[in-house]
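Hey, can you fold this one?
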Amino acid sequence: MRCVIARFPFDFVTSEVESLMANVRPEPAVGPCAVIGRRTYPVKQVGEIITRQDRRDFTALEVTRALRRLGFTCVTQAPAPAPATDLLG
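Sure. Predicted structure:
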């Protein structure tokens, strides 16, 4: 699917994005995030990897739009981690 990010055209395929992100460890999820596979990534991290551009060159909204068009779930805020339970008490 063709999309424009930071004024540059890109042709993305869902499977290509999944394979690029497969071996990437997610950064702490802050702000807009995308669910790729079973992991939640900040959209700026995904954009940097799939476009090979500095993340200051594009907005989170540009990447979010592209990822949604490819069928990925995007959320505005990362889900909060489950609270730790006290096993001793």
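The chain is about 30% helix and 20% strand. Let me know if you want another pass with a different chain boundary.
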